[in-house]
Amino acid sequence: MGRRAATPISRPLDEPAGKPLGEPRTKRKVTLLLSALVALVTAGATMSGPAVAADDIGVAACGDGSYQAEAVRNGNTWTAPGYSGTDMLSAMRAAVNSLTPGRTSKQRVVVRGSGSVPGNQSLDLPSYTVLDVCGTINSSGTVGANHAPIRTQNTTDVEVQNVSITGAPYFGIFVRNGTNITLGQINMQLSGGLGVRIDNHSNRNVRTRNVRIDNVFVSGSGSHAVETYGVDGITIGTVTARNVGESGLLLNDTINATITRVDAENAGTGTGYAAFRMANRNGRIGSSYPVNIRVGEVIARGGGRGVFCVSESGGAQIDRVTISNTGNNAILIENCYGVNIATQGGTITGGGGVRIAARTEFANTSDVTLQNLTLTNNSLTENPCGVRITYRNLTLNNSSRSTCS
Description:
The protein is mainly β. The chain has three helices and 26 strands. The relative contact order is 0.08.
């Protein structure tokens, strides 16, 4: 079953997230000169003008483009509207608080520099706020429940374009009961805690809606890299998880999800968690399971499980899987319904076996298709027999099979 974030535990850092290649030096100089000229001409309009539209905010590099406020570090001094001092969180709060009150369109804050945020405090983003952090936020000291370096609750139209986070936060980024939420390029090299948590737990009768995550890299978290609970409508580019304590991507009670890729290495080692896990009626719409969870690719190397569907979840299609040397099941489908794995192919090599199973407290597993898979040094087991379980185009190399059809 999905759970809330574990108390942060120490995990070793893994490979650093690769930064996108920068612009050539000459081009960068030209860009900076042009930006400076534009800033001189339009400074007044930029700093005090109307909020920029969402489509105008998209930028090629962190900090480029127009903004309404900024927090800048020079030496040990942070400067923001109405603030000058040594505290990063105070500077960021001052920049956010300087935006137009009661706004109904997005305004943007750029943070230039790195610093620390206490683990028991948060930068809270109100509605219609865009945050672009060109630096690293280190979560330091004792954590507080439900705190995060970046947090937004009961809001709409909030965007985090870029940020790097280190330390062991309770959550790295925390979204609760939001709509129209966008996370861009997120890099977390942690030593505990949970990476990104998105849920609806301030009012479970209203789902968090319309979420987009472009690319998230998380290493060293004690819990999950990315977890959702109570979300309707989420599009994810790539979740990259390295040496995280639990799942790479965990979807709980989430519907209408499209994920391009989950790439996990050593996710949930020694546990029953998985590179990609669905739990708590994930994918269930009303009382049925139409296909509404679509995943392009799951890559799992080492760790706990590769793909795990449990507790009345389903309505899922995974196009491709590449799973190797998991310590627990490569794939476990347990009390799930309407699951189609490897529609476009996949390989499972070594590690734990592939298993179709069920517990007695839920209805039996049904309407599951495993196809286009090559199993090497593995096993395929169905126990107990499920309902309408289909196996198609399977190649078993030095692998056993014990199924009901």
